[in-house]
From TrEMBL, chain A:
Top-level taxonomy: Eukaryota, Viridiplantae, Streptophyta, Embryophyta, Tracheophyta
Name recorded for this polypeptide: Brix domain-containing protein
GO cellular component, one term: preribosome, large subunit precursor
Example GO biological process: maturation of LSU-rRNA
Protein species of origin: Punica granatum (Pomegranate)
Domain Brix, chain residue ranges per copy: 102-309
InterPro entries: Brix (IPR007109), IMP4/RPF1 (IPR044281)
GO molecular function terms listed in the Swiss-Prot or TrEMBL record: rRNA primary transcript binding
Region (Disordered): 1-62
Comp. bias (Basic and acidic residues): 15-28, 41-51
TrEMBL record, chain B:
Positions of WD repeats: 299-340
Keyword set includes Zinc-finger: no
Protein's UniProt keywords contain Iron-sulfur: no
Biased composition (Basic and acidic residues): 361-371, 396-406
Annotated InterPro entries: WD40/YVTN_repeat-like_dom_sf (IPR015943), WD40_repeat_CS (IPR019775), WD40_repeat_dom_sf (IPR036322), WD40_rpt (IPR001680), WDR74/Nsa1 (IPR037379)
The species this protein was found in: Punica granatum (Pomegranate)
Region feature (Disordered): 361-436
Superkingdom as given in the UniProt entry: Eukaryota
Membrane-traversing stretches: none
Assigned keywords, A-Z: Repeat, WD repeat
Name of the protein in its database record: WD repeat-containing protein 74 isoform X2
Amino acid sequence: MVKKEKGQLLPSMMKNKEKRSAVHAELKHQKKLEKRKKIKARDAAEKRALELGEEPPPRAIPRTIENTREFDETVCKPDDEELFARNDADELSSILKRERTPTILITTSRFNSTLGPAFISELLDVIPNSEYFKRGTYDLKKIVEYAKTKDFTSLIVVHTNRRKPDALLIIGLPDGPTAHFKLSKLVLRKDIKNHGNPTSHEPELVLNNFTTRLGHRIGRIIQSLFPQDPNFRGRRVVTFHNQRDFIFFRHHRYIFETKETNKATCSKTKGTKSSKGENVTQEKVIARLQECGPRFTLKLISLQHGTFDTKSGEYEWVHKPEMDTSRRRFFL
Amino acid sequence: MPRTMKVESPGCPPLRALTFDELGLIKVVEARGGSHGSDPKVVERWGEPEPSRCVLAASIDDRKSNPLLAVARKCGTVEILNPLKGDVRAAISDVAHDGVKPEDDPIVGLHLFKSEGSDRTSGSCIVLTCTTKGNARIRHCAFSSSPDDSASTDTATLWKVCGAGNVLCSKVDASESYAVFGGKGVEVNVWDIRKGTKIWNAKPPPKNNLGIFTPTWFTSATFLCKDDHRKIVAGTNSHQVRLYDISAQRRPVISFDFRETAIKAVCEDLDGYTVYLGNGTGDLASFDMRTGKMLGSFLGKCSGSIRSIARHPMLPVIASCGLDSYLRLWDIKSRQPLSAVFLKQHLNAVVFDSNFTDEASLKPDPTHEAEDTVEDVQTGDVEAAKPLKKRKKKAAKEGRRKEGATAKDNGVDNLKMKKKMKKKRSEMGEGLNDQQ
């Protein structure tokens, strides 16, 4: 981190733990003081500039991992005709072109658990046109065939581990891709403070930050779960936000309001992904959000080319440890 | 622990490969040799994206004069192209016979015969196709001056490879008189092409003591040695690789397991005992078939199923392509990745064009026909290339970012490219003169 010359004594070179921790604490204290001084100086400079009526000096942009993400050649470009051709040709295009309305079949893994059904009932509320079937002891391949004959467009399997939902398998039908996600940080509706109740209007879908080819394909898979004609008057929005290969799921109801404030005040917003109001002038229209429905994060484990088939399946993308060699490389 | 420091990849020797994908596009990837190899780039793209024209199999006959490339598409047509320019010389469309439409019975294997001499000058070629239901056909195809509608004098020697089951893989050996077929429910069988008879059929390995046996499902097969048609390597769906010897017995001689998904591609090496295997999760490894031991695996970021592996006939390079839309080139000896080219679609096949020569390695010989046409193609169509710094394979793809984007840079950069090539050529010329 901080470059030291060769002659200086690094704390890591000291063998005595007491002394080493003392020197390290001293160093950290120094750094903290310096940082505080810098911030004070910067604030003073800004205040002075504002008083004088000039431009305040520009703030430095902090370096984040997203800023320094490695260049990825698989990022989709807006003028790529091959991308459009591939989109037209892939398995999801018939749903996305509104030729079929999506119908979803939700089921669980074989050994059911306590927290499973609660999550599933919430999923049934979130995704319109979905039905729940108990698993029994059917083979997953047989379930896929059954769903095909009954004309479903997707199959979702919720897998539980240690009595908590753990993984999500989204299978497109008839021979669509299979996406396997790891599910974590699940918060059910009853555990959210001041939650709202979702209505049955068709939701709007927000997909953020799915930039690469793989991300684009996953985005289309998620898009094919929801009907393509959102009901804007229902004011219901479902968000899948991708950041650093984690997909965050949120479900809100929103309402537009005009607020009259002078300086920067935060409006009452829950949920941080959508717009909030920071007003400098008088009247502004802001959207207030109320969270309803579950909240969870997904991470893609593998994407398989056909329907679920571990033995003879071909994987389009599978995570391998040799891909993790850089902290600044993301795949979605 | 995976490697966290980037290793300098040595760069690619000059080569040219053609890749075929699921939308029917044929992309030509070339690596020009510089002083120390350079990164391969897509120089051409032939065809329009259209899912019914998805390429299922391809075969190249790359001789010096009049090379040909045969491509089998999903709609049932087999097209013969010129691999240098990409124009269609002939097209054989599969007439629906027996009431079976070509979409239901897609072509699985294709081979263009490298027959010498007389056939070629008169402008005809022989093609062997095999479909999933087992209809194998040899067709003679003559090209006239107009590409469509060549008189495909269908001296169709047609035979049925299997009664039931689907044929999934087929290969013709180097002497072009034997062909091996295998598939789901179809045991490996070897046919003599000239006579059209089956000369050998494999037997499944015996059931184990619980009475369990895995049903036959071969997903890839190849002949092991180019001058011996008797040894065959086949990969199965249950991640098993088997070596069969026709002269020895009908059961496999050696069989071993490789990882956990189906073996999708097998390619033999020129030395007659090494094979390269690619499976459904993107693992690529080389095995010594005399002992059945793994020589090593090719570690790189291949994350999609490998659909096809090709070995360059002269350089120690193999190419693998698959569902992750990358064409990767590997060095055989060190098993290091040389480079990866992102090609945007699911790739189905790759072949090498071994007549690609570069001016750096070439003595001034303007009568060499292949080299001239290749050069013409390049100066015309080459994309804006950033200066050849010695970079890692990922970072150097900036040159390709401009593909399909703004055209305003192309003019200036083309000029620069031409100037650079001229300079190089003159340098090389001087160098050679000095040596002499």
